[in-house]
Amino acid sequence: MSGKPKLHYFNGRGRMESIRWLLAAAGVEFEECFLETKDDLTKLQKDGSLLFQQVPMVEIDGMKMVQTRAIGNYIATKYNLYGKDLKERALIDMYVEAVIDLNELLMTHTFQPADKKEQHFATIVDKATNRYFPVYEKVLKDHGQDFLVGNQLSRADVQLLETLLMAEECKPDILAKFPLLQSFKARISNIPTIKKFLQPGSQRKPPLQEKDVPKLMKIFH
């Protein structure tokens, strides 16, 4: 096994994208092994690589890790993106869990049937602007630091930035009423490792298009 983490997933965002973001933010180079067909997935399932028969799967430090949150926790701990003590870690966990909830909504938008898309979009905008973003805006105001927790970069910052950018892809002016989140976005985007990941040609994946859905269905269903 090479020294670089190896990511097994399809060539797209999905649940692996937050893992790509964390590794990139930590300045860790990684390899990707893309699932192209149902047979690729079946092979991993049959050779015992997937503990619960599903991806994402990351080969790291001699382990074949599955379950997105477990992988994220491991990477965040290993690369000092998980706060300095138990209380900071609890805050990071709370902020990340909420980001994941919003991220799930954003990720599943492409898969909505045509007659549900408009309502789903309205739900995204409503929850982003009335439930989630006001909380992060208040956290930044009350905390008064460049970062959400403590005064150093954590996985909460990385994953919030990922989701803010996804939300803007969905609705470009979605941050209009959140000046602190706008400045947070600019500030975190400018951290050298993250700035590099945001450049064209990086391993960051583009938004999923409707034309990609049938190919995914063939791999996973």
What does this structure look like?
The chain is an alpha+beta fold and 221 residues long. The protein folds into 2 domains: 6-79 and 198-214, Glutaredoxin (3-Layer(aba) Sandwich); 86-190, Up-down Bundle (Glutathione S-transferase Yfyf (Class Pi), Chain A, domain 2), CATH 1.20.1050. It contains 9 helices and 4 strands; from the N terminus they run βαβαββααααααα. The protein has helices at 17-25, 38-46, 68-78, 86-107, 114-143, 155-170, 179-189, 192-197, 213-220, and strands at residues 6-9, 31-34, 57-60, 63-66. A 4-stranded mixed beta sheet has the order 2-1-3-4, with helices on one face. β1 (6-9), α1 (17-25) and β2 form a beta-alpha-beta unit. α6 crosses α7. The chain is globular, with a radius of gyration of 18 Å.
Topology summary:
Blueprint: E1 6-9, H1 17-25, E2 31-34, H2 38-46, E3 57-60, E4 63-66, H3 68-78, H4 86-107, H5 114-143, H6 155-170, H7 179-189, H8 192-197, H9 213-220
Parallel strand pairs: 1-2
Antiparallel strand pairs: 1-3, 3-4
pLDDT under 50 segments (min length 5)?
A: none
How many strand elements?
Answer: 4
CATH architecture of the largest domain: Up-down Bundle
Distance between the termini: 30 Å
The third-level CATH topology of the largest domain is Glutathione S-transferase Yfyf (Class Pi), Chain A, domain 2
Under CATH at level 1, the class of the largest domain stands as: Mainly Alpha
Mean pLDDT: 95
Helix content: 55-70%
Order of helices and strands: EHEHEEHHHHHHH
Number of helices: 9
Shape: globular
Which structural class fits the helix and strand makeup? alpha+beta
Strand content: 5-15%
Number of folding domains? Answer: 2
Strand order of the largest sheet: 2-1-3-4
Q: How is the biggest beta sheet arranged?
A: 4 strands, mixed
Radius of gyration from the CA trace?
18 Å
GO molecular function, one term: glutathione transferase activity
Pfam family, one: GST_C_3
Domain GST N-terminal: 3-83
Family: Belongs to the GST superfamily. Alpha family.
